[in-house]
């Protein structure tokens, strides 16, 4: 058997006239955007699933799935629908807050029922809020992804400051010992 891999880059914007549906439960909510494929024979879908942790008072993006008509891809003559998913829970946010991220983020995509990465989704200028208790249309206080720093940054800064304190303390003690050895008295 001979297998070949073909890399395809496809930029797709979700049309502004997409149909929107959703389900709101106490611990899980989802939102589905649907739009017609290029040949208007199939519906493309983008579904986002949010999960709430009531004990720790946060929610997160649990997973999302994208179903696209095969006709959306060049050189694909099949009439199948391709479904890819991203299942890593991300974007942990307080219950009354929204999540906002302007910088580009890359999310790996796998085929449904498979654990092999087959593509990725690049997202920019993202803001969402789930599990909203009122009917307002304004986002709550945003948790910004630019403030998400990895744990290594504060650990490195702390270690550098501790090393600097040790160096200054050693220099002080050495200087004090030399001045006492010369006969100077400190007051």
From TrEMBL:
Compartment(s) where it occurs, according to its Swiss-Prot or TrEMBL record: Cell projection, Dendrite; Cell projection, Growth cone membrane; Cytoplasmic vesicle, Secretory vesicle, Synaptic vesicle membrane; Early endosome membrane
Entries under InterPro entries matching the protein: Lamp2-like_luminal, Lamp2-like_TM, Lysosome-assoc_membr_glycop
Topology in the lipid bilayer: Single-pass type I membrane protein
Domain Lysosome-associated membrane glycoprotein 2-like transmembrane: 153-184
Single Gene Ontology BP annotation: establishment of protein localization to organelle
Gene Ontology, cellular component aspect: late endosome membrane; lysosomal membrane; plasma membrane
Keywords: Cell projection, Cytoplasmic vesicle, Endosome, Glycoprotein, Membrane, Signal, Synapse, Transmembrane, Transmembrane helix
The keyword Transcription regulation is assigned to this record: no
Transmembrane segments: 152-174
Span of domain Lysosome-associated membrane glycoprotein 2-like luminal: 15-132
Chief localisation class: other
Membership in a protein family: Belongs to the LAMP family.
Physiological role: Plays a role in short-term synaptic plasticity in a subset of GABAergic neurons in the brain.
Listed name of the protein: Lysosome-associated membrane glycoprotein 5
Source organism per UniProt: Acromyrmex echinatior (Panamanian leafcutter ant)
């Amino acid at each position: 058997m001979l297998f070949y891999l073909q890399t395809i880059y496809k930029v797709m914007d979700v049309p502004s006239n997409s149909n929107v549906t959703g389900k709101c439960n106490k611990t899980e909510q989802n939102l589905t955007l649907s739009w017609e494929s290029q040949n208007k024979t199939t519906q493309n879908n983008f579904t986002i699933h949010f999960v709430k942790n009531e004990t720790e008072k946060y929610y997160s993006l649990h997973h999302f799935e994208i179903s696209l008509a095969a006709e959306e891809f060049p050189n694909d003559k099949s009439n199948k629908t391709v479904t890819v998913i991203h299942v890593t829970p991300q974007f942990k946010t307080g219950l009354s807050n929204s999540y906002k991220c302007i910088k580009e983020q890359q999310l790996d995509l796998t085929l449904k029922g498979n654990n092999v990465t087959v593509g990725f989704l690049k997202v920019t200028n993202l803001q969402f809020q789930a599990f909203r208790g009122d009917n307002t249309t304004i986002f709550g206080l945003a948790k910004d992804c630019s403030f998400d720093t990895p744990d290594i940054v504060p650990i490195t800064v702390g270690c550098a400051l501790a090393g600097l304190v040790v160096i200054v303390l050693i220099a002080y003690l050495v200087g004090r010992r030399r001045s006492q050895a010369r006969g100077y008295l400190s007051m």
